[in-house]
From TrEMBL:
GTP binds at G24, L25, T26, G27, S28, G29, K30, T31, G70, N127, H128, Q129, D130. GO terms for molecular function: GTP binding; GTPase activity; metal ion binding. SUPFAM superfamilies: P-loop containing nucleoside triphosphate hydrolases. Mg(2+) binds at T31, T48. Keywords: GTP-binding, Magnesium, Metal-binding, Nucleotide-binding. Belongs to the small GTPase superfamily. Arf family. It comes from Sinocyclocheilus anshuiensis. This is ADP-ribosylation factor-like protein 15. The keyword Transmembrane helix does not apply.
Amino acid sequence: SCFKTLCCKGPPPPRPEYDVVCIGLTGSGKTSLLSRLCSEATDNIIPTTGFSIKAVPFQNAILNVKELGGADSIKKYWSRYYQGSQGVVFVLDSASSEEDLEVARTELHLALQHPQLCTLPFLILANHQDKPAARSVQEVTQYSLNTSLPHPS
């Protein structure tokens, strides 16, 4: 009956949850990105020391994102937090110096080759596209995936 359909249907099924690790160098914008996705304020963002976990809700799923700090003192421990991940978000600053981009590329390649991550989906996010020095998508792709960086002439 119509009444039974309206009142007794029960709660909707839970949205699937996926565990994702978010990595990148300090200042690449990981914390700001996750704060925006969670509709939180992005004023007064401070670098993540250690790690933080945010549940990022989407219409059809929830991403439990483990953000790992990007400082040199923390990067060496990243792999301890990879277990159980179902995907990877690598955030890089598209307006960073060539030197920092080289470091980011090295970290990206280490992550792509890590046994716990190498079979997972990767999202490489070129952040800070609003900055004047931001590189194009083609440049970021070339810089991040090539085995050697092109040197500007």
